[in-house]
Amino acid sequence: MQYMLLIYDDETLWARMTEAERGKLMAEYGTLTQELQKSGKMVHGAPLQPTSTATSVRLREGKTMTTHGPFAETREQLGGYYLVETRDLDEATAIAARIPSARLGTIEVRPVMKM
Amino acid sequence: MVSVVRDIELIYREDAGRVLATLIRLLRDFDLAEEVAQEAFGAALEQWPREGVPANPTAWLVGVGRRRAIDRMRRGALHARKVADLEAASDGEAYEPYDAVSGPLEDDRLRLIFTCCHPALPLEAQVALTLRTLCGLTTEAIAHAFLVAPAAMAQRLVRAKAKIRDAGIPYRVPDASLLPERLDAVLAVVYLVFTEGYGASSGDALVRRELCAEAVRLARLLAELVPGHAEAMGLLALLLLHDSRRDARVDASGDLVLLEDQDRARWDSEEIAEGLALVESALRASPRGRPGPYAVQAAIAAVHAQAPDAAMTDWPQIAALYDVLMQAAPSPVVALNRAVAVAMARGPGEGLALLDAADARHLAGYHLFHAARADLLRRLGRPAEALADYARARELAPNDAERRYLGKRIAELEAFAQRGSIAPST
Predict the structure, then answer these.
(1) Distance to chain A for B168, nearest Cα, Å
(2) Residue B260: how many CB atoms within 10 A of its CB?
(3) What mean pLDDT do residues B367-392 have?
(4) For the residues B384-407, what does the mean pLDDT come to?
């Protein structure tokens, strides 16, 4: 089954980190990503640029509205994702627990709809 | 052929749960599994009187159930691969007998418990699904027990099964690293079922008794399926010891009878004997002599159970056990109960001091905190203050039985106060 692991944490925490702290976290991400690729569970994954770079698009009554910012102001923001292929939910949540941001925020685990 | 029908009834009672659990695992579909399980037992009633009871009845039943499911899936044109997988599994493989090489951890009922109590399901759904699937309670009975409309309970079950299917909640015993916390979660669900039945707030008396009985059955199953597990034994001991008092807890008019006033002749001596033995086992099996909360609570219940009458209760023992419980599972309620035990062991003054030191923020809204405080004040000869606390307790009481009990204490104390011309505080 495929699961999206949506990584939510507080961007301001990242902004307040030292270069060294950020580097350490990114190294952990790197290790996890490599492991997932080796075990064949990794479909795709990437960090996202912060919400200050976000643009929201809505189409209402035929008009396209483009605005600056994320879809909503939230305390934690979507910072990245992994798309994984695992046997079941337990395997997916075990991976989620190893994502460094699980310590800082929340990883939402969502099954991908089978088409 | 009466004996064959009797055999089938016996097999049904003992193995229906296991047959269902295996079919759920094979079919990955609770509702389909239930339907074909019924059909399989129907087929047994038809064929066994003619052909005799098969050598491995459960494998036979699972096999029939599986083949009926395949037929249905074919007719419903379900996913071809699913059908192929099902056909590939032979009857012998499909049903792994409990006593086979794989051992108790492979029992499908154990797998099913972990599925029903999976943390990805909302807690109330875990409770409902466990009662429905493992205990065979009807949706209506569960709804009555939890004071929810049957339609709402049915929805809760439908959504839970849908989540299991859509989110890929597995049908297996969790990996060793996760097992301890998952087992804790299962024990917590069983405990919740029991306290729901034991408390006076839910449904009617008959349903409550059924809940307690099912909780005991589940605890027994867990102790059997995970042998040597200290807290599983502890929980079973605790439930048995509490359940042993069920006939003495409530009087003819449905009012609560305090432990100290209960007719101990009405306690179930068999359950007590079993509970006492289990407490010993649980304490012995506890890691490095540090018993878990269920074992300690069971030990406390055991001390009560061993007292021939209330006056002979070994309160210092109980107070000491509460000290241990405060280490194992500290909480405001445990602190409260410890204060009460200390009061009995060393006098109301010491108990009151502990109560006043306890975390009042969490206990301020708890009726038993105020009732305990009132009782201690009464024993210390401070009736006016006691009345104030009893009144607060009654305001906070969650049900009629407890309100009535507190009303009685207030009336007694007011009568006493009047006789002694002590003015109430307001």
Answers:
(1) 5
(2) 12
(3) 93
(4) 90
For CA atoms B335, B339, B345, B346, give the dihedral sign: positive
Tokens linked to A110:
């969502």
Q: Does A97 touch chain B (CB under 8 A)?
A: no
Which residues of chain B neighbour A1 with C-beta distances below 8 Å? 168
Domain B2-94 classification at class level:
mainly alpha
The string of pLDDT tens digits covering residues A7-21 is 999 999 999 999 999
More confident residue, B83 or B233: B233
CA distance B99 to B181: 26
ipTM (interface predicted TM): 0.89
Residue A101 has pLDDT above 60, yes or no: yes
CATH class of the domain whose range is A2-111: alpha beta
Q: Where are the domains of chain A?
A: 2-111
**Residue B84 CA from chain centroid, whole number:** 40
Does A87 sit within 8 Å of B167, measured CB to CB?
no
CA distance B380 to B321: 25
Q: Does A107 touch chain B (CB under 8 A)?
A: no
Q: Is B168 within 8 Å of A93 when comparing Cβ atoms? A: no
DSSP state letters, A39-69: HT-EEEEEE---GGG-EEEEEETTEEEEEES
In chain B, where the domains are located: 2-94, 241-330
Inter-chain touch A111–B120, beta carbons under 8 Å: no
CA of A111: which chain B residue's CA is closest? Answer: B167
